[in-house]
């Protein structure tokens, strides 16, 4: 892991928050439905009051957010409370090493990695705030006012209507869910394609619903369409020989990465690459510390790096800063399903204009949660200090 050294800070206090926001329209993917919008946040504070915010991926299973909150409270925070670090990578190394046997015993590598990823983001936010610089800058990026963004998470029902709403909100690229009924999927592809305006594009996301024979058959029907990428057509653990057969057959670039959970998996994807787009999720595995070198390696391999993200505002802003720091021709995933936790957790919430997401220039993430406004949505809270 690449190491960034800063003046040391000592973790004196930690707070864990779990929120659940009710929504009217469920968010549908081919593997499950979200009936509310959860978020797990962690806030760390140094002895001089410097603080940092992180977010943990927790969309599934439906009961998973509180579990991750409790994992932070009962297992992970005690490993760093009272300790002094001069590098976020040192803290992540310690957390990963010390939780190794527990990961094996519990067979819960996912929730543990997601919780560590949230802590990693909080540590980077802290170090950047202490340095008085925006997060993208301490990650090694040049000054930037915005990153390209696309509207994501578009449901298979009323797809075209939602695309039109997103256009009105400032987006020029869209990604909608397929992997349901094939006839409806094709209808949505035809409708959106026929209604695109000049300079616009769209991608489609199968969420791992197909097998190779079906994927070969369905993608034969995509030859007349211009599609930015086809996301997770196969389960992420499908052998690379099958991915390569599909990549050779399909003219649309294949995308995956949100469910990769080790450096080895990424390394495999770079060698003799079959993916045109790789999409690490910093709240799901690796945080910023382990994803920064991976994102740079993705670009070096000539592949497009597009951060994956679907959650509250803190993780979104951290993803935007990483994309700004790494560069390339990637685009930020911005979930467009109603979720009050997106703007309320990231205040002031950046604007989207002409397909670009504005990047805060204030220190760290450049945003903070408006806790007063969302206390009623809190399902779990714990404060720990030394
Ligand atoms: Mg996806």
Brief digest:
The chain has 386 residues and is an alpha/beta fold. It has helices at residues 64-80, 88-98, 100-106, 109-131, 135-138, 159-168, 182-194, 212-220, 240-249, 263-270, 287-300, 313-326, 341-344, 371-374; strands at residues 9-29, 32-46, 51-56, 84-85, 146-154, 173-177, 201-205, 230-231, 254-256, 277-278, 304-305, 332-335, 352-353, 356-358, 378-385. Strands 5, 6, 7, 8, 9, 10, 11, 12, 13 and 14 form a ten-stranded mixed β-sheet that branches. Strands 1, 2, 3, 4 and 15 form a five-stranded antiparallel β-sheet that branches.
Question: What does the model show?
Answer:
The structure is a single chain. The chain is an alpha/beta fold. The protein has 2 domains: 139 residues, Enolase-like, domain 1 (2-Layer Sandwich); 222 residues, TIM Barrel. Helix content is 38%, strand content 23%. The strands form 2 sheets. Strands 5, 6, 7, 8, 9, 10, 11, 12, 13 and 14 form a 10-stranded mixed sheet that branches. Strands 1, 2, 3, 4 and 15 form a 5-stranded antiparallel sheet that branches. A hairpin with a 2-residue loop joins strand 1 and strand 2. The longest helix is centred in the N-terminal third of the chain and has 23 residues. The protein is globular and about 60 Å long. The chain starts with 8 loop residues before the first strand and ends with a strand. The model has no long low-confidence stretch (mean pLDDT 96). Magnesium ion binds next to loops. Magnesium ion (MG) binds next to loops.
